[in-house]
Amino acid sequence: MIIDAHAHIFPSKIAAKASKAIGDFYNLPMRAEGTAEGLLAQGAGVISRYIVHSSATAVRQVRPINEFIFEEMQAHPEFIGFMTLHPDMSEQEVDAEMAWCENNGFSGIKLHPDFQKFLIDEERALKIYEAASGKFPILIHTGDMRFEYSRPERLAKIAKAFPELKLIGAHFGGYSRWNEVNCYKGIRNIYMDTSSSLAFMHEGEAERFINYFGAEWFFFGSDYPMWDIGEELERFMALKLTDEQREMILFKNIKSLLNL
């Protein structure tokens, strides 16, 4: 079993435009258009389950995105849905949306501070963490040298303030800010995924991260459609890890976290 713990999908009519916007944001060529069908085609015969999500850049987008993810979950049992929320929502709106998503089988939350333009640890985001504590894990984009929104130290601050909240720091916990990720050491409610990192890390760097923190804190993620799933899996399998470490990262850890 392999679970892809980080994949974006978009409705077919806007998928190409949405994927291009992400590529432009990172100045990187996208490997696919970002449709659900494209994700399943890339992972066919290799990936067993996929965590799928998308990020709302305005409050008005939250419910339509979550309804789309729900429809795709219904159509494809392989999909594990993570809801989108936005820090400009009121407490009542957050509670209502989270209840709707819980009733419809969602397993977590995805936030993207750089897209949604909020500091991980700012006041208006705290209501989301409070509502999710002990209920939903939050996968959160973390680390980008161009912005202050998602610095690793901000994620560490939230993890300490909300010890019952399970957090997943995307991109080895600090995309392009990996020198700042040591602040997670000893924090027992921060996990990390491997997405959008292996192509940029120096030789041996990923292994050092995994051995330093412990393989039990990592998940495999492709970041589709930014990367080709097969190529990301090849990069991961080339790491000098034990079979036990690979199994933990490829499926055991995320399976345990989500009670799959």
Write the layout of secondary structure elements.
Blueprint: E1 3-8, H1 12-26, H2 36-43, E2 49-53, H3 62-75, E3 79-84, H4 91-103, E4 108-111, H5 113-116, H6 126-132, E5 138-140, H7 152-161, E6 167-169, E7 190-193, H8 205-213, E8 218-219, H9 229-237, H10 243-258
Parallel strand pairs: 1-2, 2-3, 3-4, 4-5, 5-6, 6-7, 7-8
Helix pairs in contact: 4-6
Care to describe what's here?
The chain has 260 residues and is an alpha/beta fold. The protein has a single domain (3-258), classed as Metal-dependent hydrolases (TIM Barrel), CATH 3.20.20. 40% of the residues lie in helices and 13% in strands. It has helices spanning 12-26, 36-43, 62-75, 91-103, 113-116, 126-132, 152-161, 205-213, 229-237, 243-258; strands at 3-8, 49-53, 79-84, 108-111, 138-140, 167-169, 190-193, 218-219. The chain has an eight-stranded parallel β-sheet, sandwiched between helices. Helix 4 (91-103) runs parallel beside helix 6 (126-132). The two termini are 12 Å apart.
